[in-house]
Amino acid sequence: MDAAAEISAVVAEYASMLSSIERVPEHPESVDIQTKENVAVRVEVSSAGWRIQHISCDKDAALRRQLADLVGSVYETAEGLLMRVSPAFVKEWQARLVAQLELIGSVEE
């Protein structure tokens, strides 16, 4: 899957789990993400994965330093990246997974 298609799929799948997620018009392989914790992340998508180009937040200085260490990090999947930067995403992703597994379980009964 090329970067544009992968970004489109992630936007469609996870927009409700984030404050915002949108393509960067001047950089078609990049996406700006705003988590529900007000962490802003610019990510470049390539065959190598999802690379954090920039990250910032409105939180305390210690968290800003911790997040700054993530710049340049590459994640194989968007889910891996989002789970690293957003506890709210993790909770919603897990809740969705549980709901899907319960649905499968109810169909099998």
Labels describing this entry:
109 residues, copper amine oxidase-like fold, 5-stranded antiparallel beta sheet, 4 helices, 5 strands, 46% helix, globular
Order of helices and strands: HEEEEHEHH
Beta-strand proportion: 25-35%
Overall spatial form: globular
Helix fraction bin: 40-55%
The CATH topology is given as copper amine oxidase-like fold
User: Which secondary-structure class do the elements indicate?
Assistant: alpha+beta
Average of pLDDT:
90
User: How many strands appear in the DSSP assignment?
Assistant: 5
Number of contiguous helices:
4
CATH architectural group: 2-Layer Sandwich
Head-to-tail CA distance between termini: 36 Å
Main beta sheet strand tally, sense and closure = 5 strands, antiparallel
CATH class category: Alpha Beta
At a glance:
The protein has 109 residues and is an alpha+beta fold.
How would you characterize this protein structure?
This protein has one domain: Hypothetical protein (hspc210) (copper amine oxidase-like fold, 2-Layer Sandwich), CATH 3.30.2280.10. Helix content is 46%, strand content 29%. It contains four helices and five strands. It has helices at 3-14, 61-68, 78-85, 87-108, and strands at 20-24, 27-34, 39-46, 49-57, 74-75. The chain has a five-stranded antiparallel beta sheet with strand order 1-2-3-4-5. The chain is globular. It starts with a helix and ends with a helix.
Give the SSE layout:
Blueprint (H helix, E strand, L loop, with lengths): L2 H12 L5 E5 L2 E8 L4 E8 L2 E9 L3 H8 L5 E2 L2 H8 L1 H22 L1
Antiparallel strand pairs: 1-2, 2-3, 3-4, 4-5
Protein name: GSKIP domain-containing protein
InterPro entries: GSKIP_dom (IPR007967), GSKIP_dom_sf (IPR023231)
